[in-house]
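notes to self, project folder thing:

trying the whole complex as one job this time. last attempt i did each chain seperately and stitching them together was a nightmare. two parts in total, labels are on each line so i dont mix them up again. if this works i'll redo the older ones the same way
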Amino acid sequence: MNGYNFAYLDEPTKRMIRRAILKAVAIPGHQVPFGAREMPLPYGWGTGGIQVTAAILGADDVLKVIDQGADDTTNAVSIRRFFSRVAGVETTTRTRDASVIQTRHRIPETPLRDDQILVYQVPLPEPLAKLEPSRAETKQMHALADYGLMHVKLYEDIARFGHVTISYDYPVMVNDRYLMSPSPIPAFDTLKMNRMPALQLFGAGREKRIYAVPPYTTVRPLDFDDHPFALIRAPHACTLCGATNSYLDEVVTDDRGGRMFICSDTDYCADRRGDAASEGDAA
Amino acid sequence: MAYVAVKGGERAIDAAHDWLARVRRGAPTVPEIKTDQIAEQLGRAVDRVMAEGSCYDRDLGALAVKQAQGDLIEAAFLLRAYRTTLPRFASSLPVETSAMLIHRRISAIYKDLPGGQVLGPTYDYTHRLLDFALAAEADSGVAPAAPLPPAEPDQTPPAVTPRVLDMLHAEGLMGAEPQSDATPGDITREPMSFPAERDIRLQALARGDEGFLLALGYSTQRGYGNSHPFVGELRMGDVSVEIEPPELGFAIDIGRITLTECEMVNQFGGSKTEPPQFTRGYGLCFGHGERKAMGMALVDRAMRAEELGEDATAPAQDIEFVLYHSDNIEATGFVEHLKLPHYVDFQSELETIREIRRTSQNSTDAAGEPL
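result (full assembly):
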């Protein structure tokens, strides 16, 4: 695109972001502050993920962008278009064809490989934020690996409700050292992070933090021996492809309680149905 | 599923943009507004957009106001997103507001003082009566504004208008500001960290949301922060911006900008090491923005509570709270992102709440008690 550098950001800015990424990879789960820039898309709409993607994208990369697991949600379309426009890279909706996948709120159902990078958009990188709003305080807690506050929160949930009530953005321990926000993915996706072959990068633009989970790193949802982490998904099969192991969206079909459950991962669902529907509008 | 119609996202976005363009233009029977009209006649809107967009350019500010249909936060965002792509070829020398070409300058703490009270173009003493004559099509009949009335030879404004707080300082009644030649931090390049020093705080406030600073400043007057402020001085006018290119070795003037500066005088009871004296709250912003500069000065002073050994319990005194929430570009982005689809998260909330209700129902049923 005329007047802008490849992938929008200028090279010194990309270098600054790459340095932050390298540091993040070296200290898995640790939040690295970085000089996030204003982007032409609003804060809170994926600017952190966009900056990370812009910094790692090469001309021969193939980019996939999903929001809620789907390639055709408006914000995914908007971000994919942004990179088509400012980087001219090839885009795809097929998980297995992508070298870089930027995501909001989901991890693809198709297992990722070690030649792929998953970039998460992160709204609130601080896993302790809801328990302690001061970043000066939480920074110290991370330094001391003092996560008692979160254990107490989980304990109180179990005591009151019989379950942990965190259903998304479930806190995880990375490499047995740092408590990390996996971004608001459903708790269902949390276990996919553990020892994932792909590099996982997390960008929080407004909060100006980058963090990472290197390939094959241990990621463990926080739990107790007598109350182990339990997966929750809608107890149904996908109406379209019949999958019983995928994360499902509940679609309200009428105003009399009618419901349909379909895969949230549109590429996975289309692939299982064996049709080419997943090629869609990512032209 | 209207806004995630399968495969329809791209067409929907295009159609939305077309519709937006038509709405922005309004009825074609009405002549299109020109950016020079906005810059000239909606100058205070442009001022606010330049201040919160952190970019001094009246033409671009006017363009942003036009493009955003007068939504000033959206306009400031447009300007910020543009600003961040600009190369930096130099840093200016500190601007000298004492040498300001004064358009307006008042002090509330002295009846008269060197440099005088200059009321300038203010709404302060207007009666807020809608002027229906302005709604008439014809020219409003106001004589074309000269930038400044021609100065009579014996009334040439002095090159330097002394600052009121300097006079108090000379008398030893105003707390000294620590002097430093250190390069100030830059919140546009480095993320904030806490405790944040005053250079960082003032930068954040200078681009902070006018409404937020107004409300927080107001809260300190109403008892949340216990301030006793006086407007020591409020001045608005033009200052020269100078840079000193290393190859030249001397400063050159690259233009003028309009600034509003406010210095608040606040009580301070003194401490073991400091005698009782006044302290300063400082506000500065691009353009003519008195409300913004005053709010900023109140909040700046409130955030000095800890440094001055005062209790810091009110919202305006909590540095982290103020700085993390003063930026309206960040705030509007995060608040408005709630419009994005969240159905994956909501689905997991649904399943969790159903599960909890099942659990509690089972345990109540087992106990044989009615629900």
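what i see at first glance: The first strand of chain B starts at residue 101 and ends at 106.
need to look closer tmrw
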